[in-house]
């Protein structure tokens, strides 16, 4: 994406993955670090438009990630990167729940 910012069309064009994560008791800070460490290398991937992890202010063990890829192929390529595989190996033992839901555009802005 350009450094100037995003237009509604930029943000409404691509393949979205919404991820909901709940950390196990005592693991929230480690999960937060793992997700934070994924931002830079993920945004450097050619097929990635956005990678935005959020944390609930009401439940610090609850995380949401908004991922926007150029295409479904971009998502597939992301899952093959070394940084993704390393993060998942560290992350999965620390989470109680993880749901990934892909979305595609059905209406235009």
Keywords:
109 residues, alpha+beta, Alpha-Beta Plaits, four-stranded antiparallel β-sheet, 32% strand, globular
CATH topology: Alpha-Beta Plaits
Query: Biggest sheet, strands in spatial order?
Result: 2-3-1-4
Number of domains: 1
> Runs with pLDDT <50, length 5+?
none
- Give the SSE string: HEHEEHHE
**Strand-residue proportion:** 25-35%
Q: Which architecture per CATH?
A: 2-Layer Sandwich
The coarse overall form would be globular
| Biggest beta-sheet profile | 4 strands, antiparallel
The rounded distance between the terminal residues' Cα atoms is 18 Å
Number of helices: 4
Mean pLDDT across residues: 92
Top CATH class: Alpha Beta
Provide the gyration radius in Å: 14 Å
Describe the structure.
The chain has 109 residues and is α+β, with helices and mostly antiparallel strands. The chain is 34% helix and 32% strand. It has helices at 8-11, 28-43, 72-78, 82-91; strands spanning 15-23, 48-55, 62-69, 95-104. The chain has a four-stranded antiparallel sheet. Strand 2 (48-55) and strand 3 (62-69) form a beta hairpin. The chain is globular, with a radius of gyration of 14 Å. The model has no long low-confidence stretch (mean pLDDT 92).
Summarize the structure.
The chain has four helices and four strands. By secondary structure, the protein is of the alpha+beta class.
How are the SSEs ordered, and which strands pair?
Blueprint: H1 8-11, E1 15-23, H2 28-43, E2 48-55, E3 62-69, H3 72-78, H4 82-91, E4 95-104
Helix pairs in contact: 2-4
